[in-house]
Amino acid sequence: MFRIEAKSNPRFIEAGFIILFIIAMMAFSIGYLKATPHIPIFLVISLLIAYGLLKKVPFRELEGGMIAGASAGLGAVFIFFFIGILISSWMMGGTIPTLIYYGFLTVSPSFFFAIVFLICSIVGISVGSSLTTVATVGVAFMGIAGAMDISLAITAGAIVSGAFFGDKMSPLSDTTNLASGTVGVDLFEHIKNMGWTTIPAFIISIILYAILSPSGTDASFDTVEQFKQGLLGTGLIHWYTLLPIAVLIIMTFYKAPALITLAVVSILGVGLSYIQEPIALSTIFKMLFEGYVSQTGNKEVDALLTRGGMSSMLSTIALVLLALTMGGLLFTLGIIQSILAKVESIFRSAGSVITGAAITGVGINTLIGEQYLSILLTGEAFKAQFAKVGLAPKNLSRVMEDAGTVVNPLVPWSVCGIFIASVLDISTVTYLPFTFFCLLGPILTIIFGWSGKTLTKLEK
Length: 460
Fold this sequence. Notes:
Elements lengths: L11 H21 L5 H17 L4 H13 L2 H20 L1 H10 L7 H16 L2 H19 L3 H18 L4 H9 L4 H26 L9 H11 L10 H11 L4 H19 L4 H10 L8 H7 L8 H19 L2 H9 L6 H19 L2 H18 L4 H13 L9 H10 L3 H4 L4 H16 L9
Helix pairs in contact: 1-17, 2-16, 3-16, 4-9, 4-13, 4-16, 5-6, 5-11, 6-7, 6-8, 6-10, 7-8, 7-11, 7-15, 7-21, 8-10, 9-19, 9-20, 10-20, 10-23, 12-13, 16-19, 18-19, 18-20, 18-23, 19-20, 20-23
């Protein structure tokens, strides 16, 4: 997107006013009006077109900028389609249900908060969705915590931390694919590089949750048993259904392209479904497009397993294309260039650039309350700056997740914050101090940025 030529040269004050207006409009629409991000972004695009015409920028140039911006996301769009297919195939083949079932086998009264964090992490990686994890197993654990008469705030913090660890590290996650696609980094290379900050945050978090866990409780675990029985009732729980995960790990180790890897393991998932029970080809095609529909009769289990399909990714794809179109207009109108030119002198070292990107990700989450935009706008704004200080793009994609993806549930008026508070019936401010993993993300990424450790330099 930085190759888009500016067709106007607004002053810093003018560009700054436009950016603040966009942020205010987005924050009001999403936070107060509870609008989905698509409509506010569409309105911003319309206003930017009007602004460009007032600045006497030909419409053809504006249109060209919009197309150039949107085209930057085509790689991510194909990944998103494959992710939708993969989730469906792994559901029908039993891979995801089996992984979740084995996770539930670890539940016990001892180290309760640590186990909640661990299981939510496993489920989050399995389904690639933090909000689905919170709304299913998260609700179950809140019920268990209530029966045990222990801290609901810490339980909620462990649920949110685990769910967003899984969301961040899962190849099925839309935010993970968005972050890697925005800056042009291979999906699995991005996940591997995130381990430098994510694994320490995970270890520190699970230790803290273990220390805080109560001991000697005799609470009933009926809810967990219901989940386990519901999963067994699907008939999909078998050790061999984990084969696609082994293949995924092997292909990742040998650095196979993400699209090829996703295609291979998706085919494996469909193949496994034939071992469970032969399915008509027309039914498979329908599932791959519309998603897998669980019909166990257990509402919680059905809500957890009914996922996937190409169609499930359409809303995300639309948001990505709209946001990138807006970004293309901002560059065509010279607004981003004007802002960066003013603050460029601040970013002269790797540490300062990483800190600036992290603050931007946190700031967009706080002001607008939308994690997709925090990832997209931070990536587009700092791509060139990272290159100037000699840092490879995967450093930026890591920062975008460390300070973007995991920060959104900590903002009370954000999309994730509102959803989680509603589903778990606990305020964001109450569970925020105990979301150790989410809080450690921005801190560790800035510390590693200034230390110079784990950073990858651009190849010359």
